[in-house]
Design a protein that fits this description.
This protein is an alpha+beta fold. It folds into two domains: 96 residues, no CATH class; 102 residues, no CATH class. Helices cover 29% and strands 20% of the residues. Strand 7 and strand 8 form a beta hairpin. Helix 1 crosses helix 2, helix 2 packs across helix 4 and helix 4 packs antiparallel against helix 5. The chain starts with 12 loop residues before the first helix and ends in a 19-residue tail after the last helix.
């Protein structure tokens, strides 16, 4: 028997809403039902931002460095900066002679303790001020003589659901089941309280599987630490 040959299955926002209501034993009856479900869906996406790193929202960015300038504004859709490095060339000009140097992330306390934040040289560390519009500060401030570009990986916010039948969610394929389960759970709080516990269990099970699958498959090496207390 022939298969479809298609791997493009997705759901429009109105189909996600229909699925959520149906799991609660309901049907959306009017405009407000759609509006309240879309609001719950966006709140669900906000909750996902607290649940770890979603690989489909990781993006490589770059910023041309200015000599003596330590702090740079990051796009407002950025939730955090994961890794950063300085480079001799922009991404479009990368070649066999491109040199990159990794930077170490530091917290606010360590950054605030630095005595001269505007000393210039080759940056070795960075601090992320996670405000509504995030900022990344380098230490030391770049002299931009050799390493001219800052490249950094960000974890971005999931895009809002703003329409219905002509819009799909900004969600990877493997997260479609837990998105529908999560919306059903959120809707049950408002429309089917007798199903809250069941919807919550299903949602937490679905999102655990999705987050486990969304990890990076790399090798892990663990070395034991040796301790010899009696040696002088």
């Amino acid at each position: 028997m022939a298969t479809s040959g298609s791997t493009s299955f997705n759901l429009n926002i109105d189909e996600v809403i229909d699925e959520g209501y149906e799991r609660c034993g309901l049907r959306p009856m009017g405009g407000y039902d759609l509006k309240t479900a879309r609001r719950s869906l966006n709140l669900l996406f906000s909750d996902w931002g607290n649940r770890g790193i979603h690989l489909w929202k990781v993006q490589l960015n770059e910023q041309v460095l200015t000599a003596g300038t330590a702090t740079y504004t990051v796009a407002s859709n950025v939730n955090d900066v994961l890794e950063a490095y300085v480079s001799t060339t922009a991404a479009a000009a990368d070649g066999p002679n491109t040199q990159d140097v990794a930077l170490t992330k530091m917290d606010r306390s360590n950054y605030s303790a630095l005595g001269n934040k505007l000393a210039t040289g080759q940056p070795s560390q960075y601090y992320v001020d996670r405000q509504t519009t995030p900022k990344i500060s380098l230490y030391v401030a770049p002299d931009a003589s050799t390493y001219k570009v800052l490249k950094f990986y960000t974890i971005n916010r999931i895009e809002d659901a703003t329409a219905y039948n002509d819009q799909q969610a900004d969600v990877a394929y493997r997260f479609l089941p837990c998105m529908c389960a999560g919306l059903a759970y959120y809707l049950s709080m408002k429309r089917a309280p007798e199903r809250i516990e069941a919807m919550k269990l299903i949602y937490e099970d679905e999102i655990k599987r999705a987050l486990d699958e969304d990890g990076q498959r790399t090798s892990l090496y663990v070395s034991p630490q040796s301790y010899y207390p009696n040696l002088s």
